[in-house]
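Q: A small favour: would you put together sequence and structure tokens for a protein?
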Amino acid sequence: MSRVPLMTDPRVWCVAWFAAAIALTGCAGDAVATPAPSSNYLQQYANAGSALDTATTKWDGLGQALVAAGTNTVANEAPIDAAYAQALQAFSNALLAIAFPASASNDVHQVVSAANVVRNDLAGVASGAVPTAKFVSDESNLQAAINLVQQELGLGSSTPIAGA
């Protein structure tokens, strides 16, 4: 059974689209907490997206380098995937800390849930415990959830980083 390289476009576009869209359109966020929306929730959302985009770009670059060198083993990929999983967790935590409009609360929670699924997938994708198809599907679900939040916030859909 041949293994698909882990650091390929499907994984990257899922998260990268988010940061790219934020960088291009500004950010908006949803209330996950009960506090009244703050006037800077869009900036906070942009910051969270930018941090995730940076982590995604780094994760993809390191993974692509392993693939190109023929060294994309579980041992080599595990720390890269773990660092990216931490970035997804930080992103989720950031979203949950932002006081978004109440109307976006459910959508933000869907993003956090989808990010958690992808984060959990990362623990087993390098070893083959999580099939690549499941990982790609879960990333697609994360992308859809982010697009829903962005539409709710009037930002439009995000897209993958060109060339990723």
